Amino acid sequence: MKTAISSYSFARLMNGQDETQLSVIAKAKELGFAAIEFTDLTLPQGCTEAEYAVRLKAEADRCGLEIACYSVGADLLGGCGGDLEAEIDRVKGKVDIAALLGTKLLRHDAAFAFPGNSRQYQGFSNVLPRFAKGCLAITEYAAHKGIRTMVENHGLFCQDSERVELLVNTVAHPNFGLLVDIGNFLCVDENPITAVGRCAPYAFHVHVKDFLYKSGQEGDPGEGFFGTRGGAFLRGTVAGHGVVPISQCVRALKNAGYDGYLTLEFEGQEEIEYALRAGAAAVAKLV
What is the pTM of this model? Predict the structure, then answer.
């Protein structure tokens, strides 16, 4: 396994305009990571996505850092006004950007929810064929470029381990798998140990994150916390400081044969330099 960090971990610095996706590459190297993952490129003024991808790749090469993955938003239900073929074509364009970045992995969403009030008497099983059609078309395109594609347990609607496992096995293509975020299962009130054990055989990429947890019985803890689907509360924290059983989850992944990146994704409230250095140490210890 190798250590990586998501550019999303630097979000507070980038939102404050102290850093950019370009400048955090050197910081990732300084923290001791072997690779960086980029999430939806934030373009400098006057720069196209393709031009920026080339610049990011050049900077990563200069720093001696791999680009582990490119993670992008997608919505196979409501994206492009509900036009599935148009949304597939849009995500194929993101595959082209991944190729310019030099990464071999692209993660895209399936969907977060039904658009508007269109759900009616529909659940995950009703839209599974649509998800599978979209994911298959994207991964077949990506396979010709040597890029594997994934969905992540992310966004509540497509987050449960049974749902993402079902999606992978419905697509049934060797180029399509999962980005397993070991913390995200808590967002749907699922035990990470059970969920990671179920999803580990399909893992192409892994996010390591941690959460503080408060029962919904205790009331809203306030700023920084968000609600789970079942009414509990979570707040991002430094890897190793929360309730996610990180070591056991990684052991389950290793037992299933996973040998890819362990990618730190920090979204907590702690002082960011301390949080990233402590998180880097925690991930390095796992490796």
Answer: 0.96
